[in-house]
User: Fold this.
Amino acid sequence: MKISELSDRSGLPVQTIKYYIREGLLPKGAATAATRAEYDGRHLDRLRLIRALREVGDLPIASVQQIVAAVDDEDIPLHQLLGTAQYALGPRAEPHREGPDWQAAREDVDAVVAELGWQVLPDAPTRDLLAQAFVALRRLGLPIVLSDLRPYIQAAELVADHEVGRLLVGDDREKAVQTAVATNVLYERVLIALRRMAQESASARRFDDG
Amino acid sequence: MKISELSDRSGLPVQTIKYYIREGLLPKGAATAATRAEYDGRHLDRLRLIRALREVGDLPIASVQQIVAAVDDEDIPLHQLLGTAQYALGPRAEPHREGPDWQAAREDVDAVVAELGWQVLPDAPTRDLLAQAFVALRRLGLPIVLSDLRPYIQAAELVADHEVGRLLVGDDREKAVQTAVATNVLYERVLIALRRMAQESASARRFDDG
DNA sequence: TCCAATTAGATAGCCCGACTATCTAATAGT
DNA sequence: ACTATTAGATAGTCGGGCTATCTAATTGGA
Assistant:
């Protein structure tokens, strides 16, 4: 299909599609002449993935770029892709790693992970993510105790087990990869939305019982 | 304290503090003269809250503004503040509410909420948030079935019950309010981080068992 | 008392991310 | 032959979140 058709079908302006090609999010079409290229369904799929990551996952272009690079890298086995996506997601804002606050928080995180026996790489960015939250809570005078953490841990294990359980659904890599990435980013949103609704509901039940 | 001291203690540049005052995130100091104002510990606390929301919660200034406005509004009872914060958080990107895709997704969401018997307002932005994720998943050819949703629902209820249970810790409004907001935003990050780590761990256990 | 330092308040500037617009050849289709 | 379309390059825009500068007033120390 022509780029104008790709634009129509995806709902994105031609210029935006060109921009994504420039940024390496989308492979360029097969050139049929100096000023002509042919696009196919895979381009359309990729655009849908990009938009999902951007609009729902709220990921910056740079993160999307890393993710699709991993998706396109045939050398990365499917079960590693999930981890790669984690790294691409990382902590959004670079944490200030200096100071005793950070030191202590990071040690707390490592202790929790060890305690749980979780197999998480020592330099996983998710550790920083958690430590960042710990630091902020502590600065607000709301230090975390393990008992507060327990429901979150339980919830995390609950969904993670389920997610990993349904990873190997097919052997079409493109599809499997999309499922993995979508699971990571989109179901994170699902979880967040459900938690907020459950909160509102529990709160309403608790207080507005009239 | 002087603004320079506030700057030192918070670690933020004076200009940034002034900017926050201009944007209404921080009340201005008590003027002692035309070019002098006095700041106190509450300003420092507020700055810490702002930074936590910005750096860990990754909220835009506009959302922080809504939240602190609710915090400052003495007319809002504590148990409503949580809901107010939800609204301020909202869906980050305005969803395209047109089209049958959206219609269907929104109906699915409403059906789920009704099915669960959750008390969630019909116009709660969290419904849109979830619908947005549903639309994206459907467009990627990964439609949601209720059985997939169940672990997430369970996890959401688990943490929400715990959170609402520990809401009324004290009667110092300022503190209680901070706890409520922090619970909402910061523990969301905690949950996300834990889920990602649990995923990595479960994945490692499943595949790297050598 | 005088002067360097500080500050409130206002205005303008900067940087980054994510597009969007324009321009130039070079075709394609009619 | 002529109009529409396109690849590729370059430049411009816009919003968000700060920074920098400037003015006039005031303070606090030598």
In short: Strands of chain B lie at 30-33, 36-38. Chain B has nine helices and two strands.
